[in-house]
Write a structure and sequence with these properties.
Catalyzes the reduction of fatty acyl-CoA to fatty alcohols. Keywords: Lipid biosynthesis, Lipid metabolism, NADP, Oxidoreductase. Pfam families: NAD_binding_4. One of its GO terms (molecular function) is alcohol-forming long-chain fatty acyl-CoA reductase activity. The chain is an alpha/beta fold. It has a single domain, classed as NAD(P)-binding Rossmann-like Domain (Rossmann fold). The chain is about 45% helix and about 10% strand. It is built from 14 helices and 8 strands. It is globular, with a radius of gyration of 21 Å. About 30% of the residues are buried.
Length: about 350
């Protein structure tokens, strides 16, 4: 067994705090499972709670064959799963395929774009839904990010309300859904009802506190603006540029600094407005980075966030970093633990 994997195995308490017991026999639906964070969630579950029933992975693909191929190349063959592979050896693929079910679909579509029979079966069986699907670019095309980060939560919540055994709906958001304000920002649900007026926030141009009166952010209205923009610009390249600018204009109009945080906030508001009695947990990480310890130190994919700093430091190119010594750095490594704790509070 890999030394790093062996070290992690030895550090895991046998009893734990109850997460493994909670997940035992559960069926889980995960969106964005081929992404950076989604894969980490899948790996953590399979490594520490192998007695889960099934994990349905919603994968965008033209058919089942392509979805299966993506599962194998982007999940099973990923370095991230090397500890699971070491544990099961030659039985690794058999174990993975006994737990993972690739599902052709798209969060931007009704019923998540699933085949009808499969959608019915999942609604009858699933206990947990994890939404990690997201466009994470700060300034993307407005239609692209609305489809995934706003319509996605809308369609997922509609799906969740039809799941007879659902115990938890976990939505991954961002700490920056709150408008920038020159005071302590308390954790609170964003809703379409209370967004009509917000506290004064810091204006970056003149550093004066302003009061913004925000009309309700309605998804239907944003979709209409997108449709109108597409009609006005037939040239694809020009339309793409205008749609990116439209997203930023809309975000700035309501007080958000970029399209990403604005539409993420919209996604939270949509969830709150239609959730009814669905048990919801919203996680707001400030930044998602590489692994500190599990399943092994230093797992990085791509080149984002603070990755350039970590890589430059590791290569000896960045010997220091200017900062304030009294700044508190919160490192949240136990996403599943926090979700489980919140679920226990709601029970």
């Amino acid at each position: 067994m890999d030394k790093a994997c062996n070290a992690v195995e030895q550090k895991v308490p046998e009893a734990g705090i109850g997460i493994e017991k909670f997940l035992q026999g559960k069926a889980i639906l995960i969106t964005g499972a081929t992404g950076f964070l989604g894969k980490a969630i899948v790996e953590k579950i399979l490594r520490t709670s192998p007695n889960v029933s099934k994990i349905y992975l919603l994968i965008r693909a033209k058919d089942k064959e392509v979805a299966m191929q993506r599962l194998k190349t982007e999940v099973l063959e990923a370095e991230l799963f090397k500890c699971v592979k070491d544990k099961y050896g030659e039985g690794y693929e058999g174990f993975m395929m006994s737990k993972l079910v690739p599902v052709v679909g798209n969060v931007s579509q009704s019923d998540l774009g699933m085949e009808q029979d499969l959608a019915i079966a999942i609604k009858k069986n699933v206990h947990i839904i994890v939404n990690s699907a997201a466009v994470t670019s700060f300034f993307p095309r407005y239609d692209d990010i609305i489809d995934i980060n706003a319509m996605g939560p809308y369609n997922l919540m509609g799906f969740a309300k039809k799941c007879s055994k659902l115990e938890l709906f976990l939505h991954l958001s961002t700490a920056y859904v709150s408008l920038p304000r020159p005071k302590t920002i308390m954790e609170e649900m964003l809703s379409m009802a209370n967004i009509t007026e917000r506290d004064a926030y810091l204006n970056y141009n003149n550093y004066k506190s302003l009061v913004r009166f925000l009309p309700a952010v309605m998804l239907e209205n944003e979709m209409k603006l997108i449709a109108d923009c597409k009609k006005n610009f037939a040239d694809p390249a020009l339309a793409s540029k205008e749609l990116s600018e439209l997203g930023l204009k809309r975000a700035n109009k309501f007080g958000w600094p970029n399209t990403y945080t604005f539409v993420k906030a919209m996604g939270e508001m949509i969830i709150d407005s239609i959730r009814e009695d669905v048990p919801v947990v919203i996680m707001r990480p400030a930044l998602v980075e590489g692994t500190y310890n599990e399943p092994f130190p230093g797992r990085i994919e791509g080149f984002k966030g603070l990755d350039p700093l970590a890589i430059s430091n590791g290569q000896g190119k960045l010997m220091g970093f200017i900062g304030t010594l009294d700044v508190v750095l919160d490192v949240v490594t136990w996403l599943l633990m926090r979700a489980w704790q919140q679920c226990q509070c709601m029970a």
